[in-house]
Amino acid sequence: MAYVERLHAREIELGLDRLRAVYARLPPLPCPAITVAGTNGKGSTTAFLEAIYLAAGYKTGAYFSPHLVRYNERVRICGREVEDEDLCAAFTLVEAARADVSLTYFEFGTLVALVLFAQAAPDVVILEVGLGGRLDAVNIIDAAVSIVVSVGTDHQDWLGPDRETIGREKAGVFRGGRPAVIGFDVSKSVLGEAIAKGALPVVANRDFWYTADHYQWRYTGVRGSRDLPYPALRGSYQLDNAACALSAIDLLTALPVSAGAVRQGLQDVRLAARFQSLPGSPRVILDVAHNEEAAVTLAQALKEQPVVGRTLAVVGMFKDKPIAGVFRALLDSCDDWFVATLTDPRGADGAYLAAQLALFQRQARGVYQDPVSAFRAARAAALADDRIVVFGSFKTVGAILEAEAGEGAGGGGKAI
């Protein structure tokens, strides 16, 4: 991985010409693909699709990004992360195929995933877009069904100055004559781009929707209605993601899925750090929310599950994220704040996070050199009826997950 990071002068360089040239020398996918784009929710939607197709008895390939602890998390075959040896063999094949073509870290990794899927010969592949859509590496694949789950204002430096422009970029995954699933929280430009491309738009709240009560939720789509259990991924917002996944499944008619498989898949789905609770006391919630829209969603999820005591926030963020906007969304949800420096070229200094918090007349409980130190302090300060919520970045949450695993914590709320 260190070698791949040094291959290209830029961490991100949008464009598909170099990538297509290399992919032409590699084995093609032997099965239909579903592409999942969006500002937030695309990882969960990918996980829903994977779990439901697995429950239906199909062999799956699923590509996620970024990872939390191990690179292997990015590539799953039949629900299992690929092994180091298989990854290394696929990297070797891509290295030989690229010759003198320079590839970014994400481009190289995407080709590695596609090689592994070609070798495994699954029935369906689900690909999470990394950044945007139109020029993202995943878009070299002509998907049978494409999804835009949501559109927010993240990555404006790369995708455009406003939500409408960003929506057009994300809709670049759509293909003429093929289904285009358009989610519940998108810009008007997504539908416009789908029509311009000659895609077959299937639109939330028009062509598919859901209702929910205390016990279950009812999904209605192109193949009728069904009553379903709440998914294993918690938070009412996950119903938006699940509904988008179910719409795509209905549209990929080559792979029929029974109602029983849908129910089982919703209960089997797993994806770390999406309002994930660690066992023990005090309760610890991990969430990778790192933009304003995701912070609003996290605040709503915290409100839906009130706590007797306080909510202690542990946060570390990249400096190119809308830090003030994220804090504003969570001010009423968090009582104490433990802010941390991210030791990454893009990482924000903890003192800067504290200064941003002070703009809202809130004082950080402490400023720490890394997320693990902040988490230790929050654990020491928390009472049994309190809860700790860790958010702000995949790197922040990943550091806590790694430390917890290293200490063998989680079963009894043991401090790390």
Report a brief summary of the structure.
38% of the residues lie in helices and 18% in strands. The protein contains 15 helices and 17 strands. The model is unreliable at 409-416 (pLDDT under 50).
Low-confidence region ranges: 409-416
The CATH architecture of the largest domain is 3-Layer(aba) Sandwich
Mean pLDDT across all residues, rounded? Answer: 94
What's the total helix number? Answer: 15
Beta-strand residue fraction = 15-25%
Tell me the distance between the termini: 28 Å
CATH-assigned homologous superfamily of the largest domain? Mur-like, catalytic domain
Share of helix, binned: 25-40%
Shape: globular
Counting structural domains, the number is: 2
CATH fold field value of the largest domain:
UDP-N-acetylmuramoyl-L-alanine:D-glutamate ligase
